[in-house]
Amino acid sequence: MEFWKGKEKKEEEKAARAMIELRKKNAEYEVVSAEVMTSRSKRQELKERIRELEDMLQDCQQQLDTLLKALEEKNCQYDRDVRACEEDLQEKKSCNTSNLELRHSYRTRRQTRTMEAAFNERIERMERIQKELQEQLARSQQETGDLMVRSREESLKQKDQMAKMMEMMSALVKGKGPM
Protein backbone atom coordinates (compact mmCIF):
# COMPACT_ATOMS: atom_id res chain seq x y z
CA MET A 1 0.00 0.00 0.00
CA GLU A 2 2.82 2.36 0.86
CA PHE A 3 4.29 1.59 -2.51
CA TRP A 4 1.13 2.71 -4.35
CA LYS A 5 0.79 5.82 -2.22
CA GLY A 6 4.39 6.79 -2.98
CA LYS A 7 3.89 6.11 -6.66
CA GLU A 8 0.65 8.09 -6.65
CA LYS A 9 2.34 11.01 -4.91
CA LYS A 10 5.15 10.98 -7.51
CA GLU A 11 2.60 10.96 -10.31
CA GLU A 12 0.75 13.88 -8.72
CA GLU A 13 4.00 15.85 -8.39
CA LYS A 14 4.90 15.04 -11.97
CA ALA A 15 1.42 16.16 -13.11
CA ALA A 16 1.72 19.36 -11.04
CA ARG A 17 5.13 20.14 -12.63
CA ALA A 18 3.71 19.44 -16.08
CA MET A 19 0.75 21.71 -15.29
CA ILE A 20 3.07 24.52 -14.14
CA GLU A 21 5.17 24.09 -17.28
CA LEU A 22 2.04 24.08 -19.42
CA ARG A 23 0.86 27.30 -17.76
CA LYS A 24 4.28 28.88 -18.41
CA LYS A 25 4.13 27.82 -22.06
CA ASN A 26 0.59 29.10 -22.32
CA ALA A 27 1.67 32.47 -20.90
CA GLU A 28 4.60 32.56 -23.36
CA TYR A 29 2.23 31.70 -26.17
CA GLU A 30 -0.14 34.51 -25.13
CA VAL A 31 2.76 37.02 -25.09
CA VAL A 32 4.03 35.89 -28.48
CA SER A 33 0.49 35.89 -29.86
CA ALA A 34 -0.01 39.47 -28.66
CA GLU A 35 3.31 40.45 -30.25
CA VAL A 36 2.23 38.86 -33.52
CA MET A 37 -1.06 40.76 -33.47
CA THR A 38 0.76 44.02 -32.75
CA SER A 39 3.23 43.28 -35.49
CA ARG A 40 0.40 42.55 -37.93
CA SER A 41 -1.28 45.85 -37.15
CA LYS A 42 2.04 47.67 -37.62
CA ARG A 43 2.51 45.91 -40.92
CA GLN A 44 -0.99 46.95 -42.01
CA GLU A 45 -0.23 50.55 -41.03
CA LEU A 46 2.98 50.42 -43.07
CA LYS A 47 1.07 49.06 -46.06
CA GLU A 48 -1.43 51.91 -45.78
CA ARG A 49 1.39 54.45 -45.51
CA ILE A 50 3.04 52.97 -48.60
CA ARG A 51 -0.24 53.27 -50.50
CA GLU A 52 -0.57 56.90 -49.38
CA LEU A 53 3.00 57.66 -50.47
CA GLU A 54 2.46 55.98 -53.82
CA ASP A 55 -0.68 58.09 -54.34
CA MET A 56 1.25 61.23 -53.41
CA LEU A 57 4.00 60.22 -55.80
CA GLN A 58 1.50 59.72 -58.60
CA ASP A 59 -0.08 63.13 -57.88
CA CYS A 60 3.33 64.81 -57.97
CA GLN A 61 4.12 63.09 -61.25
CA GLN A 62 0.82 64.31 -62.73
CA GLN A 63 1.54 67.85 -61.55
CA LEU A 64 5.00 67.67 -63.08
CA ASP A 65 3.54 66.44 -66.39
CA THR A 66 0.99 69.26 -66.36
CA LEU A 67 3.68 71.85 -65.67
CA LEU A 68 5.89 70.48 -68.43
CA LYS A 69 2.99 70.59 -70.89
CA ALA A 70 2.24 74.19 -69.90
CA LEU A 71 5.92 75.05 -70.34
CA GLU A 72 5.93 73.56 -73.82
CA GLU A 73 2.82 75.56 -74.72
CA LYS A 74 4.45 78.75 -73.43
CA ASN A 75 7.58 77.98 -75.47
CA CYS A 76 5.48 77.57 -78.61
CA GLN A 77 3.62 80.83 -77.90
CA TYR A 78 6.91 82.62 -77.27
CA ASP A 79 8.35 81.32 -80.56
CA ARG A 80 5.25 82.52 -82.42
CA ASP A 81 5.48 85.94 -80.76
CA VAL A 82 9.18 86.26 -81.56
CA ARG A 83 8.60 85.27 -85.20
CA ALA A 84 5.78 87.80 -85.46
CA CYS A 85 7.99 90.51 -84.00
CA GLU A 86 10.85 89.62 -86.34
CA GLU A 87 8.49 89.71 -89.33
CA ASP A 88 7.23 93.10 -88.21
CA LEU A 89 10.80 94.33 -87.90
CA GLN A 90 11.71 93.02 -91.34
CA GLU A 91 8.64 94.66 -92.80
CA LYS A 92 9.51 97.96 -91.16
CA LYS A 93 13.11 97.80 -92.39
CA SER A 94 12.05 97.18 -95.99
CA CYS A 95 9.77 100.24 -96.05
CA ASN A 96 11.05 103.78 -96.17
CA THR A 97 11.48 104.58 -92.55
CA SER A 98 10.50 107.83 -91.09
CA ASN A 99 11.10 108.99 -87.57
CA LEU A 100 7.71 107.67 -86.61
CA GLU A 101 8.50 104.26 -88.03
CA LEU A 102 11.90 104.25 -86.33
CA ARG A 103 10.31 105.03 -82.99
CA HIS A 104 7.74 102.29 -83.53
CA SER A 105 10.52 99.83 -84.46
CA TYR A 106 12.46 100.78 -81.35
CA ARG A 107 9.31 100.34 -79.29
CA THR A 108 8.74 96.89 -80.88
CA ARG A 109 12.32 95.79 -80.11
CA ARG A 110 11.94 97.01 -76.58
CA GLN A 111 8.67 95.11 -76.25
CA THR A 112 10.36 92.00 -77.66
CA ARG A 113 13.17 92.29 -75.11
CA THR A 114 10.60 92.80 -72.35
CA MET A 115 8.70 89.74 -73.54
CA GLU A 116 11.93 87.74 -73.67
CA ALA A 117 12.81 88.76 -70.12
CA ALA A 118 9.34 87.82 -68.85
CA PHE A 119 9.51 84.52 -70.71
CA ASN A 120 12.97 83.77 -69.28
CA GLU A 121 11.63 84.47 -65.81
CA ARG A 122 8.77 82.06 -66.42
CA ILE A 123 11.18 79.43 -67.72
CA GLU A 124 13.39 79.81 -64.65
CA ARG A 125 10.37 79.60 -62.35
CA MET A 126 9.14 76.48 -64.14
CA GLU A 127 12.63 74.92 -63.89
CA ARG A 128 12.73 75.66 -60.15
CA ILE A 129 9.28 74.13 -59.70
CA GLN A 130 10.31 71.12 -61.76
CA LYS A 131 13.45 70.69 -59.67
CA GLU A 132 11.44 70.94 -56.43
CA LEU A 133 8.95 68.38 -57.69
CA GLN A 134 11.76 66.04 -58.68
CA GLU A 135 13.27 66.40 -55.21
CA GLN A 136 9.89 65.67 -53.63
CA LEU A 137 9.51 62.69 -55.90
CA ALA A 138 12.96 61.39 -54.93
CA ARG A 139 12.18 61.85 -51.23
CA SER A 140 8.85 60.07 -51.61
CA GLN A 141 10.50 57.22 -53.47
CA GLN A 142 13.16 56.93 -50.75
CA GLU A 143 10.51 56.93 -48.01
CA THR A 144 8.52 54.30 -49.89
CA GLY A 145 11.61 52.13 -50.30
CA ASP A 146 12.48 52.49 -46.62
CA LEU A 147 8.94 51.59 -45.59
CA MET A 148 8.96 48.56 -47.85
CA VAL A 149 12.27 47.36 -46.37
CA ARG A 150 10.95 47.84 -42.84
CA SER A 151 7.74 46.05 -43.72
CA ARG A 152 9.67 43.12 -45.12
CA GLU A 153 11.87 42.96 -42.03
CA GLU A 154 8.78 42.98 -39.80
CA SER A 155 7.22 40.26 -41.93
CA LEU A 156 10.34 38.10 -41.60
CA LYS A 157 10.38 38.64 -37.84
CA GLN A 158 6.73 37.62 -37.64
CA LYS A 159 7.42 34.53 -39.69
CA ASP A 160 10.29 33.54 -37.37
CA GLN A 161 8.12 34.14 -34.30
CA MET A 162 5.32 32.05 -35.73
CA ALA A 163 7.75 29.22 -36.52
CA LYS A 164 9.07 29.31 -32.96
CA MET A 165 5.54 29.29 -31.58
CA MET A 166 4.63 26.34 -33.75
CA GLU A 167 7.70 24.44 -32.53
CA MET A 168 6.79 25.21 -28.93
CA MET A 169 3.20 24.16 -29.45
CA SER A 170 4.16 20.93 -31.18
CA ALA A 171 6.61 20.16 -28.40
CA LEU A 172 3.87 20.78 -25.83
CA VAL A 173 1.36 18.67 -27.70
CA LYS A 174 3.81 15.79 -28.06
CA GLY A 175 4.79 16.05 -24.42
CA LYS A 176 8.40 16.82 -25.23
CA GLY A 177 8.38 20.29 -23.77
CA PRO A 178 11.08 21.25 -21.32
CA MET A 179 10.19 20.27 -17.76
What would you say this structure looks like, in words?
With 179 residues, the chain is an all-alpha fold. Helix 1 (2-94) runs antiparallel to helix 2 (99-174). The chain has a single domain (2-160), classed as Helix Hairpins (Orthogonal Bundle). It is rod-shaped and about 140 Å long. The protein has 2 helices and no strands. The protein starts with a helix and ends in a 5-residue tail after the last helix. 94% of the residues lie in helices and 0% in strands. It comes from Gossypium hirsutum (Upland cotton). Keywords: Coiled coil. Residues 8-77, 116-143 form a coiled coil. This is Golgin subfamily A member 6-like protein 22.
Features:
about 180 residues; mainly alpha; about 0% strand; Helix Hairpins; 2 helices
- How many separate domains make up the residues? 1
CATH topology: Helix Hairpins
> Regarding CATH, which class?
Mainly Alpha
Biggest sheet record: none
How large is the share of residues in beta strands? under 5%
Parts with pLDDT < 50 across at least 5 consecutive residues: none
Q: End-to-end span in angstroms?
A: 29 Å
Assign the structural class, choosing from mainly alpha, mainly beta, alpha/beta, alpha+beta, or little secondary structure: mainly alpha
H/E series = HH
Q: Tell me the overall shape.
A: rod-shaped
CATH architecture descriptor: Orthogonal Bundle
Count of DSSP H/I helices: 2
Indicate the percent of residues in helices: over 70%
Mean pLDDT: 80
Radius of gyration: 39 Å
- The counted number of beta strands is 0
